[in-house]
Write a structure and sequence with these properties.
6-stranded mixed sheet; 2 domains; 12 helices; 478 residues; alpha+beta; FAD; 6-stranded antiparallel sheet; FAD/NAD(P)-binding domain; Elongation Factor Tu (Ef-tu), domain 3
Length: 478
């Protein structure tokens, strides 16, 4: 059967059978709706994939922490299991030892997903490339083509929106939890107290350095161990707007002082008579104000080196990172501008997006967005609308980041939306954060942080259960 001949009954077309597309197709079929799942492999392969299996894991076999009480990704695992996720079922069935993490046998995992989708009576798998916009007669489409979206489809999407619709290269600076920054060292101020669009004149957190600290920092950047480009990234050159911080440092010892770390227009209120030799600035990253990104600090340093080097910055000695920096090839949408809360393209609502293309990072995150996209697409087909889960849940917090929780920029300049892993910094703060332990003693330091995460997780699981009961007629996963 050719995929371009629509079945007699209503159907949703899902383009891309990675983790997000596979999960979307599964959720649509579970809701009793027919699905045509389009996968271009093996008709056309990519530089990253090695097989023609659905949901092939190309970079890692780890789904990261499975601790639902203390870790945001573990919490997302738990929510997805409650929602009957195929990806989580296949991961659990093909788990390999990895301590507290959920790691899987790659081949077994992909085979399980492929078998489940191939055997479902409402799912038709078509091996073909969709090399442009889907035909107009496809009125309900989920596009989940991932970071290696083919050029013809990417060009067609951009033609529907504008030149800034798609990015093809991540340039991600580290993002720090606001409450882990030492405010006895750092201070709020914009350069020259400038009030930019949406700003107050005190929009940046500033961390000062002496000359000795700056010199040691530059040396550490240059000496730090770097990540190599993957084979399919090597033909994507740096451009000056996203040079890695260590590449700038290699161009001359004073380069950073005349770039992102310039100390001009700022006065340290903790020591107003001493002018810092260099200053690291952090800018608010989300509307909640819980996350701050390190301005101009995109990097190819390995994660261990980033933690070691960036914690030498005054005020960041105890920094907790929501995500570390990176620079790699990726295709993703300017989702806060382009997508509605149901992940539909505002310029063409028949098209819904899912997975890494929307601006999430990680296997589990991509699959979870596919899960919601599938549920929403199925609801649309029967004339209903599905509100996203509350922002207090892991899935709702991630959707909120993608569709509106991120701020574009404080000062006029290029867009700043970047992909994000799930982390507790995306969640609304607790109304009454825990202050005492079960023994009645006041919580301090790490104990307070652990209690806060556990309270956020407990709230999330209660709220996802309530959302499922109110909006879905899905059995809970066993």
């Amino acid at each position: 059967m050719t995929s371009r001949t629509a079945p007699a009954s209503p159907v949703v077309h899902v383009i891309g059978a990675g983790l997000a597309g596979s999960e979307a197709a599964w959720q649509i079929a579970r809701a009793g709706v027919r699905v045509v799942l389009h996968e271009m492999r093996p008709v056309r392969t990519t530089e990253a994939h090695k097989t023609d299996g659905l949901a092939e894991l190309v970079c890692s076999n780890s789904f990261r922490s499975d601790d639902a009480a203390n870790n945001a990704v573990g919490l997302l695992h738990a929510e997805m299991r409650r929602l009957g996720s195929l990806i989580m079922q296949a991961a659990d069935a093909n788990q390999v030892p990895a301590g507290g993490a959920l790691a899987v046998d790659r081949d077994g995992f992909s085979a399980a997903v492929t078998k489940a989708l191939a055997e479902h009576p409402l799912i038709e798998i078509c091996r073909e490339e969709i090399d442009g916009l889907p035909p107009q007669e496809w009125t309900n489409v989920v596009i989940a083509t991932g970071p290696l979206t083919s050029a013809p489809l990417a060009d067609a999407i951009r033609g529907l929106t504008d030149e800034s619709a798609l990015a093809f290269f991540d340039a991600i600076a580290p993002i720090v939890h606001r409450d882990s920054i030492d405010m006895s060292v750092a201070w709020f101020q914009s350069r020259y107290d400038k009030v930019g669009p949406g700003g107050t004149g005190a929009d940046y957190l500033n961390c000062p350095m002496t000359r000795e600290q700056y010199d040691a920092f530059v040396d550490a950047l240059i000496e730090g161990e770097k990540v190599d480009f993957k084979d399919w990234e090597k033909d994507t050159p740096y451009f000056d707007g996203c040079l890695p911080i260590e590449v700038m440092a290699e161009r001359g010892r004073e380069t950073l002082r005349h770039g992102p770390m310039k100390p001009v227009g700022l006065t340290n209120p903790h020591n107003p008579t001493v002018k810092p030799y260099a200053i690291v600035q952090l800018r608010q990253d989300n509307k909640l104000g819980t996350l701050y990104n390190m301005v101009g600090f995109q990097t190819k340093l390995k994660h261990g080196a980033q933690l070691r080097v960036f914690r030498t910055i005054p005020g960041l000695e105890n920094a907790e990172f929501a995500r570390l920096g990176g620079l790699h090839r990726n295709t993703f949408l300017n989702s806060p501008k382009l997508l509605d809360e149901s992940l539909r393209l505002r310029a063409s609502p028949r098209l819904r997006f899912a997975g890494q293309m929307t601006g999430c990072e990680g296997y589990v995150e991509s699959a979870s967005i596919g899960l919601f996209a599938g549920l929403a697409a199925a609801a649309d087909l029967v004339g209903q609308s599905l509100a996203p889960p509350p922002p207090t849940t892991a899935l709702g917090a991630l959707l909120g980041h993608i569709t509106g929780g991120h701020i574009e920029t404080i000062d006029a300049g290029p867009r700043s939306f970047q992909p994000m892993n799930i982390n507790f910094g995306l969640f609304p703060p607790l109304a009454n954060p825990p202050t005492k332990g079960p023994d009645g003693k006041r919580l301090r330091g790490p104990e307070k942080s652990v209690a806060k995460k556990q309270a956020l997780s407990a709230r999330a699981l209660a709220d996802i259960d309530a959302w499922i009961a109110a909006h879905l007629k899905l059995p809970k996963a066993a």
